[in-house]
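During the reporting period, our protein records have gained a structure token line. A sample record is set out beneath this paragraph:
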Amino acid sequence: MSTIEEKPRGGRMPRRARRAQLLSSALEVFVSQGYHSAAMDDIAERAGVSKPVLYQHFPGKLELYLALLDQSCDTIIDSAEKALNSTEDNRERVAACMSAFYDYVASAEGAFRLVFESDLTNEPAVRERVDRVTTECARLIAHVIHDDTGLPAEASNLLAVSLVGMAQVSARFWLHDRSGIPQNDAASLVAGLAWRGIRGYPRTDEPTTNHSHH
């Protein structure tokens, strides 16, 4: 690929940079209008490109939406993983994970709407991605719950799914409710509820020595 600075009409851009720019413009349009109302014309116009350029990268509106969904799902799963790896203390892990969900929902670009409030959830490919957020995040959290409670994998996973559901539903409610509770306080409140529940399951496979809950 040539590195020479060239600025013909429309501006040449490396393919990856152009793709990122198109996704960014598409996100704005999809978040503000929803999938059904969004038009490829609007997205091309927002990105400052012709429609043929947009179609070179994405054959249609659904492909563009799914690419955005993949990006959004990866963001929240990666954030949950980072949160859980940020400390060895399980109580803090639950709190960090809850904060990650609240940060994601509160982010200005509103990408969470594509994942949690999509108007296209009857499309199997969309459903699959939305479900992946729950299953992947729960898989990560289930390890923490298993380590802390000694519950079998299936039970730990069900509790982890419940925690993910609690995180995303409460974060979305908090965002729309505007009750004045600061974001960190809201995340801490719900993390406290989750943690008190998890720590209520005593380990059964070992004595309570060297396993302190503060």
User: Anything to note?
Assistant: Residues 124-149 form the longest helix (26 residues). The two ends are 57 Å apart (CA to CA).
